[in-house]
């Protein structure tokens, strides 16, 4: 999974010319399909690694589950980050999105069948990398639908539809994962079926016109673009702040099931899988509320740095709660406060970044650079988390280190000069 900023594309496609098909194409019904497509994607991205994959790895090697889960998650994240722009470039060159959405979605089903049938850590790693491959084919093409088909005047609504896929999909993924915690093989098939069915629905209802084929950007130019954007003072600090906060967030989020199993004192009769199914909707609701409210308030008072710094600091406070208490109440409080902090941060920080982009004509390219700050920490987080837990013998140190990273992320916005 690569967390993406709304409005940016993995494949590097830019904003269409007003005369292009996207500028005048009707979007009625496409918003709902974008919500459905992104919801299905996040349903699998949350439910599979967050629950079923963790349970499968624990069944294979209970004693080494933390190190193995970190290894599988880290390797698959590297694979996903590398494969996403490749998949995007392929759909760019074809000038089509629907065939890639359909192919990626349909292939998810047999890959999930394969993942549920393997019994060694090596084969789980290979199968989940294949899963990341087909899901990134689906994701890269789906993400490019917004700049391809949505008029500029409707981009805000489209970004909202894409963004809502995360909390809605997270909730569904947690509930489905918990429902099949005793039979993860069937659970994998259910997740695959959800993505496959949504891909069929999307491509059947969202007709497209063939876009002009685009030549892939040479690797040298991509590297030069990356370096050029980070030379800008304000953009560099925005990039650093995003990377630090995302690293702290995913270092904890990826190990949520094991935290509930080995760190939290759950009430009698409440299983860790059921606890995830409770925490995820609570976190998602808090995230939706803070996303909407934070974006509105930051617009009203024209204070982006204040809200970005405060929300990152709030995320740090949230991480301290389970560090000082192992109670179920502490985890509930953590879920609410963390959702409020992270949701507000992602909404307002994305707005802040659009205000510190080095050049308006390179906006799409530089937003793609920002996505490295989203995807890169997700690669590092599993390795960091498993190392911290293994060396410290518990999860308290992990919460404390993640809190420090969030504080540093809050402080990183202070040097930004061009935005209040």
TrEMBL record:
Superkingdom as given in the UniProt entry: Bacteria
Coiled-coil parts of chain: none
Disordered as annotated region, ranges: 1-24
Subcellular location(s) per record: Cell membrane
Major facilitator superfamily (MFS) profile domain boundaries: 31-420
Biased segments, Low complexity type: 1-17
UniProt keyword terms in alphabetical order: Membrane, Transmembrane, Transmembrane helix
Record membrane topology: Multi-pass membrane protein
Annotated TM spans: 30-54, 66-87, 158-180, 186-206, 239-260, 275-297, 306-324, 330-357, 369-389, 395-413
Any one Gene Ontology molecular-function term assigned to this protein's record: transmembrane transporter activity
InterPro entries: MFS, MFS_dom, MFS_trans_sf, Tet-R_TetA/multi-R_MdtG-like
Predominant localisation class: membrane
A GO CC term attached to the entry: plasma membrane
PANTHER family listed in its UniProt record: MAJOR FACILITATOR SUPERFAMILY (MFS) PROFILE DOMAIN-CONTAINING PROTEIN (PTHR23528:SF1), PTHR23528
Protein name: Major facilitator superfamily MFS_1 protein
Source organism of the structure: Streptomyces venezuelae (strain ATCC 10712 / CBS 650.69 / DSM 40230 / JCM 4526 / NBRC 13096 / PD 04745)
């Amino acid at each position: 999974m690569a967390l993406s900023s709304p409005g940016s594309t993995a494949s590097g496609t830019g904003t269409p010319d007003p005369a292009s098909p996207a500028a005048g194409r009707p979007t009625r019904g496409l918003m709902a399909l974008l919500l459905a497509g992104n919801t299905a994607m996040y349903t699998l991205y949350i439910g599979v690694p967050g629950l079923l994959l963790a349970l499968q790895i624990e069944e294979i090697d209970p004693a080494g589950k933390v190190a193995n889960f970190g290894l599988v998650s880290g390797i698959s994240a590297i694979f996903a980050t590398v494969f996403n722009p490749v998949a995007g470039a392929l759909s760019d060159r074809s000038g089509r999105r629907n065939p890639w959405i359909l192919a990626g979605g349909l292939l998810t089903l047999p890959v999930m069948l394969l993942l549920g049938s393997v019994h060694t850590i090596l084969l789980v790693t290979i199968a989940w990398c294949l899963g990341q491959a087909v899901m990134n084919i689906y994701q890269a093409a789906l993400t490019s639908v917004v700049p391809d088909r949505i008029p500029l005047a409707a981009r805000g609504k489209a970004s909202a539809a894409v963004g809502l896929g995360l909390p809605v999909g997270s909730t569904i993924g947690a509930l489905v994962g918990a429902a099949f915690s005793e039979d993860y093989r069937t659970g994998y098939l259910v997740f695959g079926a959800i993505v496959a069915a949504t891909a069929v629905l999307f491509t059947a209802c969202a007709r497209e016109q063939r876009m002009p084929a685009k030549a892939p950007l040479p690797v040298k130019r991509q590297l030069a673009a990356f370096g050029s954007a980070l030379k800008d003072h304000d953009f560099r600090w925005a990039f650093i702040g995003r990377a630090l906060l995302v690293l702290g967030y995913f270092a904890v989020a990826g190990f949520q099931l094991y935290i509930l199993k080995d760190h939290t004192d759950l009430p009698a009769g409440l299983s860790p899988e059921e606890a995830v199914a409770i925490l995820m909707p609570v976190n998602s609701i808090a995230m939706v509320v803070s996303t909407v409210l934070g974006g509105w308030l930051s617009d009203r008072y024209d204070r982006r740095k204040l809200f970005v710094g405060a929300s990152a600091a709030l995320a740090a406070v949230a991480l301290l709660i389970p560090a000082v208490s192992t109670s179920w109440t502490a985890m509930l409080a953590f879920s609410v406060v963390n959702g409020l902090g992270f949701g507000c941060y992602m909404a307002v920080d994305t707005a802040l970044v659009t205000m510190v982009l080095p050049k308006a004509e390179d906006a799409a390219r530089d937003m793609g650079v920002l996505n490295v700050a989203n995807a890169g920490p997700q690669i590092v987080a599993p390795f960091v988390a498993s190392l911290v837990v293994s060396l410290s013998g518990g999860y308290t140190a992990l919460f404390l280190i993640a809190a420090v990273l969030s504080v540093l992320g809050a402080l990183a916005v202070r040097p930004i000069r061009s935005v209040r």
